[in-house]
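Our consortium's second objective concerns turning raw sequence data into structural hypotheses that experimental partners can test. To show how far this objective has progressed, the report includes one record in full. It was chosen at random from the queue rather than selected for favorable results. The single chain below, 78 residues long, was entered without modification.
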Amino acid sequence: MPSTKEIPVKIHFEDGSMWATVDDMPGVFATGDTLEELRGSLSEGISLYLAENGQDAPPVDVTSLAPAETHTQAALAC
């Protein structure tokens, strides 16, 4: 069974599309016209970040994006 972890994600809305960054993972940047596209882009970006930083982790799937008090939480299945 995959484990899950929540990480803070900043989502920005601009000109009808959205983009996101992950402060804890410098260089991770995702874009999308819909939340589903953004979720997929975040999954790919986080997976690449972990692989490039020598972390032996399976591909990540951002399973949900939910508002938190001060930021958005991304639930990861890895």
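The partners drew two points from this record. The mean pLDDT is 81. The CA atoms of residues 4 and 77 lie 5 Å apart. Both points have been shared with the crystallography group to help prioritize constructs.
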